[in-house]
Amino acid sequence: MDKIIIRGGNRLHGKVLVSGAKNAALPLICAALLAPGRHRFHNVPSLRDIDTIENLLASLGAQISRGDDLFEIDTTAVDRFEAPYDMVRKMRASVLVLGPLLARFGRARVSLPGGCAIGARPINLHIKGLEAMGAEIELDHGYLNAQAKKLKGARIHLDLPTVGGTENLMMAAALAQGTTVLENAACEPEIVDLARALKSMGAHIEGEGTDTLVIEGVPDLGTLDYRVMPDRIEAGTLMVAAAMTGGDVRIQGMIPQHLKSLIGKLQDAGTEITYEAETVRVRRPRRIEAVDILTLPYPGFPTDMQAQFMALMTLAKGASVITENVFENRFMHVCEMQRLGADITIDGNTAIIKGVKKLLGAPVMATDLRASASLVLCGLAAENTTEVKRIYHLDRGYERLEEKLRRLGADIVRVPE
Ligand code: UD1
Predict the structure, then answer these.
(1) Do 2-19+230-416 and 22-227 agree at the fold level?
(2) How confident is the model over 368-388, as a mean pLDDT?
(3) 128 lines ligand 1 (CB under 6 A)
(4) Residue 397 has pLDDT above 70, yes or no
(5) Is 284 near ligand 1, meaning CB less than 6 Å away?
(6) What is the mean pLDDT of the chain?
(7) Cβ of residue 415 lying under 6 Å from some atom of ligand 1
(8) DSSP per residue over 173-188, as a string?
(9) Ligand 1 centroid to residue 260 C-alpha, Å
(10) CATH H superfamily, domain 22-227
(11) Which of 16, 29, 299, 304 is the most exposed place for a label (fewest CB within 10 A)?
(12) Nearest residue CA, atom 22 of ligand 1?
């Protein structure tokens, strides 16, 4: 197991390129299950979560090869239909094989994910939606056994705009008989990316990016040749890194429209953000001001940026309030930030952060993916040395983050623990 050691205090400067989006790549790779043949993806990031989905699809019988910029997957020979507990436990997005398997093969057996570090995270809405489309789903020793001779289009109203649920149901509906209307659907850019990819396979989808998706099923779909969108959460994390260190960083390849809510809050906090030819430049000339945030489904402030924004607020002038509305237990980073000298009080789903003048380096432990990024950010700004342990969480979702930060001038190394 590796840990990251940071000697804080360096201002970041220079240019950095954003990788492909993990949360777009995962459903896209699952979408390859919808049609036999050789699917090609570009800009797939090199991450542990991608390794996990690759192993899962390989265990189903898919053949996969990975080059520098090419991820090829042939799903012709898929003849198994089970997502085992060990994989779903490691990565909840494994449940995204459920919709495609059920739609193409009429059967799937997928472990129930159980809880995780940031909350209960049930998949009841995925199940309810598939049942509305005619699937028979029963629980069998921790597994969902799902069957459907042929899925049928349905009108489905989601109680919550679940991202994974919208993806699973959109994929299933693409091959169902008749029209599916998905109301209160998630609007995240990754949903739009998936809809675009499905359309390139021949799917009939309207309304992506709004809360109502209309999907007219087709009998079969073609193969994919698709470039994954840039990772908005990695881009946001790099923006906060620039702001936290008082740096001057040009971020290349990001799509600013995907991060409007974060950009607005960073500007309110005193960060200067300018749009140049192919980059977004982030500078922070003066002390950070305290700003409140409230996490919400897209286009609201992303829960996946909450911990990183809190890192920034630990050093703000004044007090800020952060309210987490998406996951019920997403403040695990707070105790670790307190070890660095942050002044944070939690009350239910609200954190009150009183900005301090400085953080002092200490050993800390990563508890989940975005929490680990937030601790790295704190380490960049803290005095002396911060050691972030259990860095495998970071490797699930950030491609060579420490290398990117080092090239921007950070004093950061990865060492075996
Ligand atoms: C996705 C992202 C994750 C992000 C989250 C919210 C991927 C691989 N992961 O996760 O990084 O933090 O969106 O933006 O894309 N819920 C239910 N029942 C369900 C489904 C969800 O109650 O059937 C609840 C969850 O417990 C949670 C909320 O809905 O409180 C949002 O979850 P959801 O949008 O489904 O998140 P994921 O797709 O798991």
Answers:
(1) yes
(2) 97
(3) no
(4) yes
(5) no
(6) 96
(7) no
(8) HHTSBSEEEEET----
(9) 20
(10) Enolpyruvate transferase domain (3.65.10.10)
(11) 299
(12) 122
Ordered by start, the domain boundaries in the chain are 2-19+230-416, 22-227
Nearest residue to 82 (alpha-carbon basis) of 59, 63, 65? 59
Q: Whose CA is nearest to atom 35 of ligand 1?
A: 162
pTM of the model: 0.97
Tokens of 53: 């989905």
Quickly state the pLDDT bin for 192 (edges 50, 70, 90).
very high
How far, in Å, from the CA of 267 to the mean position of ligand 1? 28
The predicted-structure confidence for 257-314, as pLDDT tens digits, reads as follows 999 999 999 999 999 999 998 899 999 999 999 999 999 999 999 999 999 999 999 9
The minimum-distance atom of ligand 1 relative to the CA of 125 is: 23
What is the percent of the chain with per-residue pLDDT over 90, rounded to a whole number?
93
Is any ligand 1 atom within 6 A of the Cβ of residue 103?
Answer: no
Tell me the CA–centroid distance for residue 250 and ligand 1, in Å: 31
Mean pLDDT of 214-236: 98
Among the listed residues 115, 110, 120, the one whose alpha carbon sits nearest the alpha carbon of residue 141:
110
- Average pLDDT for residues 200-225, to the nearest whole number? 98
pLDDT in tens, 113-132: 876 676 777 899 999 999 99
Higher per-residue pLDDT: 68 or 325: 325
Architecture of domain 2-19+230-416: Alpha-beta prism (3.65)
Query: With a 6 A CB cut-off, is 320 part of the ligand 1 pocket?
Result: no
Q: Which amino acid is at 130?
A: L
33-86 pLDDT tens trace: 999 999 999 999 999 999 999 999 999 999 999 988 899 999 999 999 999 999
Report the distance separating Cα 195 and Cα 163, nearest Å: 13
Nearest CA to ligand 1 atom 12: 304
Q: Which of 95, 160, 192, 232 to mutate to test the pocket of ligand 1 (most atoms within 8 A of CB)?
A: 160
Is 116 an annotated catalytic residue? Answer: yes
Report how far ligand 1's centroid is from the alpha carbon of 198 (Å).
Answer: 21
